[in-house]
Amino acid sequence: MPPCYDGFEHIERFWDNGEQVPTARVLPGEFYVTANEEMIITTLGSCVSACIRDPRTKVGGLNHFMLPISDSEKNDSWIRQDAGAATRYGNFAMERLINEILKRGARRSELEVKVVGGGQMYTSRNQVGLQNINFVRAYLAAEGLAIVSEDLGDIQPRQVRYFPRTGRMQVRRLATPMARATNEREAAYQAQLRQEPLTGDIELF
């Protein structure tokens, strides 16, 4: 396995026999950035992932967020957020992913963005999937970053494979048994996020 960037040692990594590449598995609330010949995978229900890369440097990554923005930040700027919310909300997840890619030599003007997820997985008026879709589109527009490809909405969860060096993104819709498991995991994760208080005192601006 090639070494990963500092700060990503906690991400599960393994060798994928099918693709014959090192692979990083991103869970809800995580993100991963690499310049190696690697594949990044995740499973999404109502969550959204942004796949972002710089074609010049080949540095890119993927995040996985469950909720668009914390209740305390709904009336504030997109990127102002407590450090303890880094693994929780889209506004912080997007900023962390973009900053990490830029820190590795990428140029904001050259970033290639693909977005996926946001399924309507629950019979709820909250429509978390739609909120996530609206958020990621608005965030990227505010940052002046164009979406070159998207697979958003619908009612099925997805498995995602992303190859940052080439920009290739593969999406597979999941069958009912796997969909049910994904829904249950996301429902439990969402309940946990709603109950846990935010901590930390760092602001990005």
Could you walk me through the main structural features you see in this protein, from its secondary elements to its overall organization?
This protein is of the alpha+beta class and 205 residues long. It has one domain: 60s Ribosomal Protein L30, Chain: A, CATH 3.30.1330.200. The chain has helices at 90-103, 128-142, 176-195, and strands at 12-16, 21-25, 31-34, 39-44, 48-54, 59-63, 112-117, 147-152, 158-163, 168-173. It has a 5-stranded mixed β-sheet, with no helix packed on it. Strands 3-6-5-7-8 form a 5-stranded mixed β-sheet, with helices on one face.
Keywords summarizing the entry:
5-stranded mixed sheet, 60s Ribosomal Protein L30, Chain: A, about 25% helix, about 200 residues, alpha+beta, globular
Q: What topology does this entry show?
A:
Layout: E1 12-16, E2 21-25, E3 31-34, E4 39-44, E5 48-54, E6 59-63, H1 90-103, E7 112-117, H2 128-142, E8 147-152, E9 158-163, E10 168-173, H3 176-195
Parallel strand pairs: 2-4, 7-8
Antiparallel strand pairs: 1-2, 3-6, 4-9, 5-6, 5-7, 9-10
Summarize the structure.
The protein has helices spanning 90-103, 128-142, 176-195, and strands at residues 12-16, 21-25, 31-34, 39-44, 48-54, 59-63, 112-117, 147-152, 158-163, 168-173. It is 24% helix and 27% strand.
Please give the alpha-carbon distance between the first and last residues: 36 Å
Q: How many helices in DSSP terms? A: 3
Count every beta strand, where a strand is a DSSP E run of 2 or more residues.
Answer: 10
The CATH first-level class comes to Alpha Beta
Largest sheet: 5 strands, mixed
How much helical structure, as a percent, in the residues? 10-25%
Can you give the mean pLDDT?
Answer: 83
Q: What integer value in Å does the Rg equal? A: 16 Å
- SSE string, helices as H and strands as E: EEEEEEHEHEEEH
Domains, number: 1
- Give the percentage of residues in beta strands: 25-35%
CATH architectural name? 2-Layer Sandwich
Helix-and-strand structural type: alpha+beta
- CATH topology category name: 60s Ribosomal Protein L30, Chain: A
For the largest beta sheet, what order do the strands appear in spatially?
1-2-4-9-10
